[in-house]
Design a protein that fits this description.
The structure holds two protein chains of two kinds. Chain A is α+β, with helices and mostly antiparallel strands. Chain A is built from 20 helices and 21 strands. Chain A folds into three domains: 41 residues; 152 residues, Penicillin-binding protein 2a (Domain 2); 338 residues, Beta-lactamase, CATH 3.40.710. In chain A, strands 2, 3, 4, 5, 10, 16 and 17 form a seven-stranded mixed β-sheet that branches. In chain A, strands 12-11-21-20-19 form a five-stranded antiparallel β-sheet, sandwiched between helices. In chain A, strands 1-8-9 form a three-stranded antiparallel β-sheet, with no helix packed on it. In chain A, strand 11 and strand 12 form a beta hairpin. The longest helix of chain A has 41 residues. Chain B has a domain of 278 residues. Helices cover 70% and strands 3% of the residues of chain B. In chain B, strands 1-2-3 form a three-stranded antiparallel β-sheet. The chains are: A alpha+beta, B mainly alpha.
Chain lengths: 620, 433
């Protein structure tokens, strides 16, 4: 029987253990039941209230986008309040009669408030979409519409007015190529990792600084759980839900000087295409940047109908107003390239300041069977390099080019950043191009009969054939006159948090060291100063009283029109250059005559402002 | 042979009724949460759930009727097969469960295989086989562990922990593989199952407490006062239990380590979704719009049910529209809103009754393998119920464990029905061994 007793003992143990396990499980269930009792009986009222039909709404609070200021804190781009009239299906008592009532709303003069086609479409859509979602029936509503709708709120259950902030470019078209614009995010952007987490209703920077600094400007959207009444009006915030505050975006402080920018904008005629760039050659800070034809960025903040119309005008315009010609536009530099050819000649020892090693200019130069003219058909006679720069003698530079070849010329030009992107903080920058035999063959391989020959040097030596952007040229002249370092040009000076704390600063970033002997530097400066100061100089319109200005004019051959592109580039004062300017005007004629006054106006304003503000780098 | 008396002896009618009742209730709840008349019947989730129930019941019957020797033959192959599948997933072979950011599935034609579900059953069988007739003691476990670490068994076999040597890898391999997925909650199911079966084998509660104490230490370390109370209790138990000195010391060190320094390190090693769930649990309002939102919605849904509920099909579409996983992990919220406290308590009562019937089978069964299997099955089901309900009412972090019978889902339904089949099997074949 021993076996039996043992088995019985086991059985008793098993029963005891089952009871323990069951008791343990029961205990847990009791705790759960107690909690259920608390939730369902003691907190019943509160929970019921929250759960009641469509009482809770989740709404996204779009973060306020960061603003843009000039270097002295003058606002350039800000946000304005924009009212939207919305409908929400779930809050309507009788959708059909509501639609009638909305459409019957009239202004004092009897004009209907709402667009009946749009309202009909929205009501139809609300039938199929999520009934708690809101649809817009009036975008960017003027104050009188807002007043009308809010007065009749009790009459219009399901209609609400929401406010959102829209971008405002304060000075109209001023600087808008620099600022760019924002517009609704598109499919491609939504899919790209760069825009991860963006809602599909987001508006994002498309061009200019709005695009370059999108992630700084944007901020973080907030989330609100609100309790609403039967009319869809907000009763209060549900404190117990995970609400999140919207965090405003960071603001940009630019290197741009609003006053100087205004001057440049005014000096550049609206009727012409082209660009102006002014920058500080000591550090690459861009002081002014104009591109023409102008762009009206504010149209992107209007209601969708006006937006579409405005956009069509811009997109179909053959003058391409969207392009920022200061960084995207490339032009042959023309005679503004000559200082670089001259510098290469000095460095190679082919010329000195006073030597006149070449045939004198008789208005034309024969190379093989070709005859190339000087712009001054009467001829300049025998000239040295300083005179050649002053009078912009082509024949001198033809011969200099032939004597030294393209390699040293391009080397000198590259030292000042020509033919390479400057790395400015704007998108779609064009690198431009410097041409030698290899580059020429690569570029024009496909064109019949276009073969490299030494004859090309004649054109390239006087800047017909290279491609540069206005920004590159301004930067190059600044470095050429200062003679120390080529800096990376930039617009952003600092990024400032909503709490006004500086979160990032754009330090000086060198692009390239400049190496010249003092003699070479001196010679080039003499030539460039003579352009504005001496008799017969082509750039006398850029003279500034009391300031030594180095400048060069240029007229670039233009395959697309009868008139040449007018160029000027300048930097001043020669002993300590604090501003460099480049101006290009498409199909405008000769540089000194048309572009010169624009650059002159900018230069004069700059020094006037300096005096007004109490010296270089003073704050107003 | 199929006479009435025979059936009464071999089939627990109440158990079968409870299983059917719970399954039917589950289909009704899924119906109320997801019914969409615009969609074809075969595409409606409640219809699919009903199909899963039928398939599961068939599976349970087959398991119940299979001869015992087939189980004996299949136990080890099934275990190693499940390890292979887990390893395959761990090596990156599986599909990523996007919602949870973890790789847990293997896509097969027609259905998704979840290796951890297979492993639950396989491990249950193998552990039952291994433990049958044996008594696990804490000291032996520690000796076995030490032996494994120092490789002592390779040349000396003097300590008294020979068979326990196998126990450690038997548990650790699947546990770590699942933990690595990462699927903390399923790994914890393995833990709960193992501890319950250790208890069944005769390990005293004191020793069980000591075994899990580092885990408790880790959890309580979030609260200084609770942790101090816990450590005092631990010391008291350690003194009373009179283990060998080095074992006591090891347990104490492990606890201090878990409570102190390790808390920070473990926090950093958690996966993002686990961390956000834990944070949300501690403070639902600080959340990242995901987990905390679910929990709050779940509270509100359950709480708004009140004592008697809003009634079947009343209200679920209003509030639970907000609830992303209403028909799977948060089905209890659907229940609470429609049937109130009475419905919730009733459901908990059904689960309690089910567990008591299952454990009754274990108590009666003299077959050592059989009653381990039954106890293990009870542990799996009980743990799922407790954790899922606790999670929906905010007593535990959101873990993603479904509620047996009620939650929508084919794989888990199969697992649960398989476990029920095993319980029925033990009862049916009682006395044959």
């Amino acid at each position: 029987m021993a076996w039996g007793t043992r088995s019985e003992m086991d059985q008793q143990r098993r029963y005891a253990r089952t009871r323990t396990l069951l008791a343990f499980f029961g205990l847990i269930l009791l705790v759960l039941a107690a909690r259920l009792l608390y939730l369902q009986v003691f907190r019943y009222d509160e929970n019921l209230r929250l759960s009641e039909k469509n009482r809770m709404r989740m709404r996204t609070i779009v973060a306020e986008r960061g603003r843009i200021y000039d270097r002295f804190g003058e606002p350039l781009v800000r946000n304005r309040a924009s009212w939207q009239v919305m409908i929400t299906r779930a809050d309507m008592t009788n959708p059909d009669s509501l639609k009638e009532r909305l459409l019957s709303l009239r202004f004092a003069d009897g004009a209907p408030v709402f667009d009946s086609a749009l309202v009909s479409v929205r009501f139809e859509q609300s039938r199929w979409r999520n009934k708690y979602g809101s649809l817009r029936v009036y975008e960017d509503a003027p104050p009188e519409v807002v007043a009308l709708v809010t007065e009749r709120a009790d009459d219009l259950p399901g209609v609400s007015v929401e406010v959102e902030s829209r971008r405002e470019y304060i000075h109209g078209t001023l600087g808008t190529h620099v600022f760019g614009y924002i517009a609704p995010i598109d499919e491609k952007e939504l899919a790209s990792p760069e825009f991860e987490g963006y809602p599909n209703s987001a508006r994002v920077g498309k061009k200019g600084l709005e695009a370059s600094y999108e992630h700084w400007l944007r901020g973080r959207d907030g989330l609100q759980y609100v309790e609403v009444d039967a009319f869809g009006r907000k009763i209060g915030l549900l404190k117990s839900m995970p609400n999140a505050e919207a965090v405003s975006g960071n603001s940009l402080v630019l290197s741009m000087d609003l006053e100087l920018q205004k001057t440049a904008e005014e000096a550049f005629p609206d009727s012409l295409k082209g660009a102006v760039v002014a920058l500080d050659p000591r550090n690459g800070e861009i002081l002014a940047m104009v591109s023409s034809p102008r762009l009206e960025s504010n149209i992107f903040s209007l209601d969708s109908l006006s937006r579409k119309k405005g956009w069509q005008n811009i997109a179909l315009d053959s003058a391409r107003p969207l392009n920022n010609r200061a960084v995207v536009g490339v032009y042959p530099p023309g005679s503004t390239f000559k200082p670089f050819t001259a510098l290469a000649g000095l460095r190679k020892g082919a010329i000195t300041e006073t030597s006149k090693p070449f045939q004198p200019c008789r208005g034309a130069f024969r190379f093989g069977k070709r005859v190339q003219h000087c712009w001054h058909l009467a001829g300049h006679g025998p000239v040295n390099v300083v005179d050649a720069l002053r009078v912009s003698c082509n024949v001198f530079f033809y011969q200099l080019g032939l004597a030294i070849g393209m390699e040293p010329i391009n080397e000198a030009a590259a030292m000042f950043g020509l033919g390479n992107k400057t790395g400015v903080d704007l998108e779609y920058e064009h690198p431009g191009a410097l041409i030698d035999s290899v580059e020429y063959e690569r570029r024009y391989r496909k064109r019949l009969g276009w073969r490299w020959s030494r004859g090309q040097i004649l054109n390239l030596a006087i800047g017909q054939g290279e491609l540069v952007t206005p920004l590159q040229l301004a930067n190059a002249y600044g470095a050429l006159v200062r003679g120390d370092t080529l800096w990376r040009p930039h617009l952003m000076q600092a990024i400032v948090s909503p709490a006004e704390r500086v979160v990032a600063r754009y330090g000086k970033r060198p692009l390239h060291p400049v190496s010249m002997t003092p003699e070479e530097h001196e010679t080039i400066l003499k030539g460039l100063e003579a352009v504005t100061s001496a008799a017969g100089g082509t750039g006398h319109r850029m003279a500034v009283p009391g300031v030594r200005v180095a400048a060069k004019t240029g007229s670039a051959e233009n395959p697309h029109g009868d008139k040449t592109h007018a160029w000027v580039a300048a930097a001043a004062p020669i002993e300590d250059a604090r501003i460099a300017v480049a101006v290009v005007m498409e199909n405008a004629g000769h540089g000194g005559g048309v572009a010169g006054p624009v650059a002159g106006a900018v230069l004069r304003k700059f020094f006037e402002l300096e005096k007004l503000r109490g010296g270089p780098d003073a704050r107003p | 042979m199929l006479d009435r008396e025979f059936l009464e002896r071999r089939v627990d009618a109440l158990f079968v009724v409870l299983v059917l009742l719970l399954s039917a209730f589950g289909v009704l709840l899924v119906f109320s949460a997801t019914n969409d008349p615009d969609v074809a019947l075969s595409q409606n989730l409640w219809f699919k759930q009903a199909l899963y129930v039928v398939a599961g019941l068939l599976c349970a019957v087959v398991v119940a009727l299979l001869p015992r020797r087939i189980f004996s033959a299949l136990t080890w192959p099934l275990y190693f097969l499940s390890l292979g599948l887990l390893l395959y997933v761990a090596m990156g072979g599986g599909s990523v469960d996007e919602a949870k950011g973890a790789a847990r599935w293997i896509k097969l034609p027609g259905f998704n295989l979840q290796p951890s579900e297979v492993a639950k059953v396989a491990y249950l069988l193998v552990l039952s086989r291994y433990l049958s007739g044996r008594e696990v003691r804490l000291e032996n476990l520690f000796r076995a562990g030490l032996g494994l670490v120092t490789l002592r068994p390779l040349w000396r076999r003097r300590h008294g922990a020979d068979w326990e040597m196998g126990l450690v890898p038997l548990f650790c391999v699947p546990f770590l593989l699942i933990l690595k997925q990462p699927d903390l909650s399923t790994a914890l199911v393995f833990m709960a199952m193992t501890l319950t079966m250790f208890f069944w084998s005769g390990m005293p509660l004191r020793e069980l407490f000591l075994l899990v104490s580092p885990g408790i230490s880790l959890v309580t370390s979030l609260h200084m006062a609770a942790w101090v109370v816990f450590i005092v209790a631990l010391l008291a138990v350690l003194l009373r239990t009179r283990l060998q000195l080095w074992i006591s010391a090891a347990i104490l060190v492990a606890n201090l380590f878990a409570g102190g320094m390790l808390a920070g390190a473990a926090w950093n090693s958690l996966e993002d979704h686990q961390r956000s769930r834990l944070e949300t649990f501690v403070d639902p309002s600080r959340d990242d719009r995901g987990a905390g939102y679910q929990v709050r919605q779940s509270f509100v849904a359950i709480g708004s049910g009140g004592l008697l509920g809003k009634g079947f099909l009343e209200g679920s579409q209003t509030n639970l529209d907000f609830l992303p996983e209403e028909h799977t992990d948060f089905i209890f919220g659907v229940l609470g809103e429609q049937f109130g406290f009475v419905g919730c308590a009733g459901a908990l009562g059904l689960f309690f009754a089910l567990l008591s019937r299952i454990l009754d089978v274990a108590a009666r069964s003299r077959d050592p393998f059989g009653n381990f299997v039954v106890v293990g099955a009870a542990a799996i089901i009980g743990f799922h119920v407790a954790v899922n309900v606790a999670m929906t009412i905010g007593l535990m972090p959101v873990t993603g464990l479904p509620l047996p019978f009620l939650s929508y889902g084919g794989t888990f339904m199969m697992t649960v029905m398989c476990l029920c089949g095993l319980v029925a099997h033990v009862r049916f074949h009682e006395g044959e061994v």
